[in-house]
């Protein structure tokens, strides 16, 4: 009997078609928004493929019954109860590295925008205003220090791009010892978290959301930033205390921030971030480009197909 695969969020059509050659695929990018139907359709599938919005835990895990694999079209696994899934014999496969370039380019782009402050004047210039004096105080990136918190795939690629632009790069990652060769190979200096916060002109977050990293960047840590420094968060919303960040921006202690991820998504009305200055907000798209969607989807299609094949071989 053909094995069934359920895909609950958007995936590149070519990768879906590739899976459909060997499996019975139900692909519905809006299924995530209809939890009752999702639960029904989960029964009896061999594999589930999700992005970051499908919460794979509790009832849904139970409904997956004898499924073998969960493919994650992206990297962070905070929407999946990995321990419970693995306890049920499910393999959880993330697309590590496949969207790193999209995120790293977002980091560089927002760092340019926030440091320079001069690229968003089209409306004023088109209206005949000439805000040249007001915009003449922008900063350059070359020679500045980028501090990366988390030095995995995305942190390392961001470092490479930044070094190419003449930034100095420092990073904090408790999983990589200060004597690891990686630091010298990458041209990046390891730092304790406190030292990094006091030294960086731009702080960019590239660590997972875990109980230990929740609210890592809180009011006390924001107070350790250099005056006028910039924060970029493409990791997970829960890592930053949004109310404390809004306050630091309103008080002018930070030079700006770019946030792609939020404690609650979509960002609820009335968020303290709504009227904070020098703030770029994007709807969790740092890792999503046309190219990365193709790479992420192809990687997960191949990995899920291989894992199902392997599981069938073991069973045979
Ligand atoms: N916004 C987006 O579209 C988007 C896209 C991809 C990934 N992400 C997020 O970015 C995060 C990083 O992705 P990645 O591919 O680089 O993951 P990765 O697993 O390659 O690297 C994460 C690194 O964080 C480190 N880390 C863990 N705890 C830490 C701590 N307390 N302080 C500092 N470092 C710590 C780990 O040791 C690891 O090296 C993901 O967990 C995900 O949440 C967001």
Molecular structure report:
By secondary structure, this protein is α/β, with parallel strands linked by helices. The protein folds into two domains: 4-98 and 291-315, Rossmann fold, CATH 3.40.50; 100-281, Rossmann fold. The chain has twelve helices and twelve strands. The chain has helices at residues 13-22, 35-42, 58-63, 82-87, 100-116, 122-126, 153-164, 181-186, 193-199, 219-222, 242-250, 290-315, and strands spanning 4-7, 24-27, 47-50, 69-72, 91-94, 145-149, 168-172, 189-190, 202-205, 230-233, 256-259, 279-281. The protein has a seven-stranded parallel β-sheet, sandwiched between helices. A five-stranded parallel β-sheet has the order 2-1-3-4-5. Strand 7 (168-172), helix 8 and strand 8 form a beta-alpha-beta unit. Helix 1 runs parallel beside helix 12 and helix 5 packs across helix 7 (153-164). The longest helix is centred in the last third of the chain and has 26 residues, at 290-315. It is globular, with a radius of gyration of 22 Å. The model has no long low-confidence stretch (mean pLDDT 97). Bound molecules: nicotinamide-adenine-dinucleotide (NAD). Nicotinamide-adenine-dinucleotide (NAD) is lined by residues 74-76, 96, 99-100, 103, 149-155, 172-175, 206-208, 213, 234-236, 260-261, 284, 286-288.
What attributes characterize this protein structure?
316 residues, Rossmann fold, alpha/beta, 5-stranded parallel sheet, 15% strand, binds nicotinamide-adenine-dinucleotide, 7-stranded parallel sheet, 12 strands, 2 domains
